[in-house]
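Q: Can someone sanity-check these two? First one:
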Amino acid sequence: MKKIYYKNHCIQKKWGQIFLNDQNVINAIVKSINPKKYQKIVEIGPGLGALTKQILDTIDIDFLILIERDSNLVNRLIQMFNKKIKIFSQNVMITNFFDLSKQFGQKLRLIGNLPYNIATELIIYLFKYLNVIDDMHFMFQKEVGRRICADPNNKEYGRLSIVTQYHYKTIPLFKIPATSFIPIPKVESLMIRFIPHTNTPYPVIDVKTLSLLTELAFRQRRKTLRNSLSTFFNQTEIIQQGINPTLRAENITINQYCTLAAILNNK
């Protein structure tokens, strides 16, 4: 397989590496993040430092916290930014953000141009760290981003929409064309802001039950609720919660799923 180089770096396809090279997009991202001097900002997958440089050029911040698993990039980033960064050479999927927040004495702001192949997995991994996260700004493959932010009664609305919005307020910011990256991906990207709920708008339940319930409902999304959830509920039980049992999975709100999950928990 032919190797692809960008700025003398051999791009690691196995890690889904793509690099931002559009200064207008970089400016727009940093403007939307609106970093402040006193904040502890964690950049996940900084690559060759396009966002890192723009943030450091924009504000007189003490340092940026970087998480990068590619040792070649780690060495380059250290040479480029020296004492303006604190870098962790590791896989973000094993990073303990509780420890990171404790180390720096405050909540964290997370940003990043995430590889498409870990983006969804990372968002779910971060559910358990909500108490130490102020907000997050991440790029997603556009189709995945639209699913994350989707509302009920929409074909893009599904399990990912529900479990993500249960934990975060999701705000789509702007699309990013494929030509903004090297190598050029086959899809556009979407920049999304995530704000953890401080006071959840949904009933507090066992999230595993919510996940199980939505998995069952959306596995057969063309079936009506009375059929897709018949393993757990009879039609009368669904009606008693003010839910029309002839609706399909995509027509049910997060609150309604939470209500059903709470009942299932008590069974």
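And here is the second, same format, sequence then tokens:
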Amino acid sequence: MPILLFGSRHVELITGKKTATIRKLWKKPLSPGDRLHCYWNLVSKERKKLFESKVTDVEVIKFGDLIKNDSLAREEGYRNAKELEADFKKIYPEDTADSSLFQVIRFKKLPIEDWEGKKIDEKSMITKRADILFDVGKFNKSVVCYSAALKFDPNDVYLLNKKGDNLSRLGKFEEAIECYDKAIELDNQNEYIYNNKAIALLNSNQPELALKCSDKAMEINSNNEFVLYWRGFIMEMLGKFDSALQCYDKILEINPEDPDVWNAKGNILSELERTEEALYCYEKALELCLEEPPDAGMWNRKGNALMELGRFEEALHCYDEALQMENENDAFICNKGVAFLEIGHYNDAIECFRKALVINPSNEDARILKDECLENL
């Protein structure tokens, strides 16, 4: 009972497109008709069965010939033979002389009812693999897996929703919306699906339609913080700032310790030139970032609010915090230069504007402000 272990990069195994693999020649070579038991070879000790298959053909090839064969390399999942050569020299460091023998094993996946060993829930196995790939950001691969899982059950609402999320991550919003629509046909009382469709519509520049989907989600559950957060964002994109603030305020009634919502509320208040209130929100957001440090953008926005209030020294501290995280951000450096300019530290300001221009020569604000500083020296 020969066993083949595959790395998770071979997603095509799930779809059935991959029907060959290249391995070092075993002491007991395979022959057509042999049964193979195929597994994911995970980093952990846990191994998951993929399927059983039957060998259809075995070709023995010398390494010297293999590394010249782009076609075989692509069958094994590489872009070309050069890439295969580099990887195989890591996998088989003692067996990459030109005369070293390898076997090209071609196989056919067997229907589960014909398996000799333990049967598995293929849909569940593929779904778990899809979820893992999605969680680590490998969206091109995870969408392939979600599609493969849906072949077992085209009406699985979870899979349709996840495939829609996946397609949204890939910027394929129309296809994502089709998935959400089918999921809604099957479950029209799921606020998360309506909300996900709203996000896809917003990203495809259809904010009015996004708001209608958000309305549906709110009808189902008006206290869902996730729905409220995105509804606030949609309102903001539509220029309905007071409505956006209502959404964020409602979330903060439910959960007053959400730094992202305090930050979002601060952004709206800044837009409305309610600077004191915005600053309070940014300070709350920064206070609440206990487990994860605040991001550079949050420090920058607090600095901007302090600048509007004429609190330039405090603003400088905020820009320094932002630049510790993103020291090549020309916008942050330029903002720091403005703070120096406001307190009359022209040489420090010039140095900031000069650095911003080195990073981004097209930063016109930095160029104009640098010239203004030079006139004041």
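A (reply): Looked at the second one. The longest strand covers residues 47-62. DSSP finds 19 helices and five strands in the chain.
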